[in-house]
Sequence to fold (424 residues):
Amino acid sequence: MGVMDSLGALVKAYPQARLVAFADLSSNMILASQGPQIVTQEHLERLCKQARSSFDDPLFSLTLEAFGEPHSAVLLGPEDVKVFLRSETEPADALCCICDHGIDLAAFVEQLRETLDSISAA
Amino acid sequence: MAGGNQGRTKGLNRGTIPIVARLLSLQTPAQIAIGGARIIAGPGNPSPLTALLRELNETILGRALRFETRDGCSLTLEAAGRRVLRLTEASGLQGAEGCLAAEVLEDENKDDLIKLMEALARPRQELRVTISARGVAGDGVSVGLPVALLADLLLIELNDPNGPGSASDAPPADPEPPAPAARQASPSSPGGSISLARFVQALAPTLMASVIRGGEADGATDGPEEMVTHLQGFLDDETDALHRQLDLVSGSPGSPACMVLGSSMFEGQGVLFARSDDASLLALFEGNPSQSLMRAWAGARA
Fold:
């Protein structure tokens, strides 16, 4: 299954996922995205920057010091939930998601992890 | 003028606001200084930095923009496609060597560049711009730093036609420049308030330690003393930086938000930082809070 198909499968399985994007954090680029939310290139660039910022100090260093390197970030905001997941084998690979508050976070994240692992391994 | 702008922009969706902001900027009569430079911020403007960033953000085709103040300080930046590509000249400002030496401005230059911009575009100082063709040496350089990134780091809204730095340049009511939204104590945050005490209560089974600062539960702590002391010390040093990080990640400066950073996705341990109004919560968790996180957040709404 290609990257677009993998992302499409996630969106299909979780209608509360408005946008799922595969990013290369090292080059600050969204490489592919799927979802019902209409976005511009500026939106995608902003989402990628938000992913990078989530794995940045000061929270990064606190997590690193306390528990080891973080690979996941969840942001509960007033309008949506953002989930950022970094590959543990390819640290630049990440999935960036914008979801409704009603999403089953535990199940969604589990499937995100499987999808990211399969993309990074390909 | 400002009231009219508000009337025209109120009710527009988010995608339309940048377009309206650009149309309004085109309608604004230019003020030309002696020598031909255009005045983009007058002496009453609380944020010439906003005006500077907006000029760069309006630059789509490759151009060199020379920003200068009345006292002779200046920066010349090459920009294209809403990106700052190079710094080609700096006068009267310290710490420009790194950016000047860079063939193309990259992520590692952004902090120095921001410092230079802040030093040049100080509050309530006239700022002028002269725009010319890019130098030949800049041909082929096309990556640079997105203006939107710099604006995010400076907590500046590029597309608000009525905000600080707008063309109307009205005298400000507040003599101080605007503080970062995250540090402004607001009685009613956009998106509604959250009771951090109730949030902690709902997450209690997975929390190892927690500290609340500000708000009605100010000073509340839970967990082993050693962990609590560590969290308190971290908050003492990093509260502003934590709010800034939350602003960047949420995209909604000052709004109630909660960020969870985990070593592995919810299987193990992690750190949680949340804020609402003027209250902050920093906590360490163990286990899997993903099931309870959403419910706890929704249940903590005031």
